[in-house]
Amino acid sequence: MLGLIKRNFTYMDRNTFTLLYKSLVKPHLEYANSVWSPHKKGVIEDIEKKPKRVTKLVISLKHLSYKDCLVQLGLPTLKYRRLQGDMVGFTQ
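The chain above was modelled as a monomer; its predicted structure follows.
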């Protein structure tokens, strides 16, 4: 997915990135998350590397850390999304 985005979009502002991330990247990273939710630290770090690389495509946010990029873009971390999904699963 990252190659597709890099190849077709040379400059991205925050709105374009957020739209592409939510529609192309995030569904792949969160697919069946409630079933295969990783519990090993190494696997979690490997999964979290993808959004870290993708957020560097926004030129105005390149100098910020990953967490700061997510705050600026209004996106939660994948760890938070997994926890949120687990909590929703418990209430049903």
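Helices lie at 2-8, 14-30, 33-36, 41-55, 66-73, 78-91.
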